[in-house]
Give the backbone structure.
Amino acid sequence: MKGKGFALSAIGSGAIFTSEEEGLLFVLSGPSGVGKDATINRMKELGFPLHFIVTYTTRPIRANEVDGRDYHFVSVSRFQEMIQSGEFLEWALVYGDYKGNSRREVREAIAAGKDVILRIDVQGAQTIRQLAPEAVFIFLAPSSMEELFQRLRKRKSDSPEQLATRMAIAPKEMAELPKFDYVVVNRDEELDQAVRQIEAIITAERCRVKKRRILL
């Protein structure tokens, strides 16, 4: 997938190429355990020309994660300081841990003409929808609830209580699907297919005659 070029603007009966347009904002969301992290990591591996925002979180780092690459891992006190200073575009308390995305990083990347992608839970997606209704909202879904529950069990990174909470909330998260622009089903062992569909969505959005305008 190639990067963006110049914007085409119609004037009179013809058309001219204008200066580089501002970037788009893509929001990838879905229920816990659906594979948002794996999808983002695969997009990075394939060299998607996107600005990937690294989320801040207070949850413990997992064995296969790297601070600053997968998430910015910070203490609760530091996160709360960032809330007070208005550093987050959106933040939420998710399953007992804080998560948030940098307001400055998103704004600067979009202003520089970069397409930005956020990986957030459905609660965060609702906040972004209020702040930037012209963003492109993609819902990553499992092929079935049983498939989703199996993934949550296999992760083995949650306590029994945390696992039960995630499974109880999952149907409510799935109920948010109609609010999104697109849905991509992430089936077991078919991650690349889901990534190709996201690539098609990005391409289609870049080809719109009436471009989305992201105001933050």
